[in-house]
From TrEMBL:
It comes from Actinospica durhamensis. Its cofactor is FMN. It catalyses: pyridoxine 5'-phosphate + O2 = pyridoxal 5'-phosphate + H2O2; pyridoxamine 5'-phosphate + O2 + H2O = pyridoxal 5'-phosphate + H2O2 + NH4(+). One of its GO terms (molecular function) is pyridoxamine phosphate oxidase activity. HAMAP family: PdxH. This is Pyridoxine/pyridoxamine 5'-phosphate oxidase. Its EC number is 1.4.3.5. Catalyzes the oxidation of either pyridoxine 5'-phosphate (PNP) or pyridoxamine 5'-phosphate (PMP) into pyridoxal 5'-phosphate (PLP). InterPro entries: Pyridox_Oxase, Pyridox_Oxase_CS, Pyridox_Oxase_N, Pyridoxamine_oxidase_dimer_C, Split_barrel_FMN-bd. It holds the Pfam family PNP_phzG_C. FMN binds at residues 71-76, 86-87, 92-93, 115, 150-151, 194, 204. The lineage of its organism: Bacteria, Bacillati, Actinomycetota, Actinomycetes, Catenulisporales. Belongs to the pyridoxamine 5'-phosphate oxidase family. Pathway: Cofactor metabolism; pyridoxal 5'-phosphate salvage; pyridoxal 5'-phosphate from pyridoxamine 5'-phosphate: step 1/1; Cofactor metabolism; pyridoxal 5'-phosphate salvage; pyridoxal 5'-phosphate from pyridoxine 5'-phosphate: step 1/1. Keywords: Flavoprotein, FMN, Oxidoreductase, Pyridoxine biosynthesis.
């Protein structure tokens, strides 16, 4: 065993005694997600977990040439219809989603030793929904959406700051939403809830769309 392996082995710890009981889960995943999100957000707001954002999620997209790529984005809405975030449509993730809308989301909720994995298809939200959210953003974030040609190479930081100043002068009052910026909603096909358990015998339950079920979803326990 190398020194690095020994050092990492020393980080091993057991998980708390929490459990998932299938009979206690909701019949469809958005309600169960709402339960877990509320519990996680309550922990995140405590001072000892100030570093943690419950709505931070890892979005994975796929490029036919480069393969999968992941990045952290912020969840801005959720419900039975899906999970919503906002981005520059011309960014790498925006271009990849336009070419292949199949995506995955991962919510790494470390404080409660949980994670939620969503698999589905991303689609644009209605224009009015993007307009409403953009109008709620701070002015600096609104201007940043104009200034940043997201994912494109730039010569230096000064170039970005000049762009910000240019758009600030162009829009001294109301900042309109850029046509290349808006919301994407991930409509789930499968949602897995994972709870860490002692001895690495974790609890995993996956919801899958199933027209034969009254709720439209089946629930299956998976081996860890």
């Amino acid at each position: 065993m190398t020194t690095e392996q020994r050092d990492l082995a020393a980080l091993r710890r057991d998980y708390a005694e929490r459990a998932i009981e299938v009979t206690e889960l909701t019949s469809e995943p958005s309600a169960q997600f709402a339960r877990w999100f509320a519990e996680t957000d309550a922990v995140a707001r405590k001072s000892d977990a100030a570093w943690f954002e419950a709505n931070a999620m890892v979005l994975t997209t796929c490029d036919q040439g480069a393969g999968p790529s992941s990045r952290t984005v912020l969840l801005k809405g959720y419900g039975p219809e899906g999970f919503t975030f906002y981005t520059n449509f011309a960014s790498r993730k925006g271009r990849q989603i336009a070419a292949d809308p199949r995506v995955a989301l991962l919510f790494p909720w470390y404080p409660l030793e949980r994670q939620v994995i969503v698999q589905g298809r991303a689609e644009r939200v209605p224009e009015w929904e993007s307009d409403a959210y953009f109008a709620s953003r701070p002015r600096g974030a609104q201007l940043g959406a104009w200034a940043s040609e997201q994912s494109q190479p730039i010569p230096d930081r000064a170039w970005l700051e000049r762009r910000l100043a240019e758009f600030s002068a162009r829009y001294p009052d109301r900042v309109p939403r850029p046509p290349h910026w808006g919301g994407l909603r991930v409509v789930p096909e499968a949602v897995e809830f994972w709870q860490g358990r002692p001895d690495r015998l974790h609890d995993r339950v996956i919801y899958r769309r199933d027209a034969a079920e009254e709720s439209g979803w089946s629930r299956t326990r998976l081996s860890p």
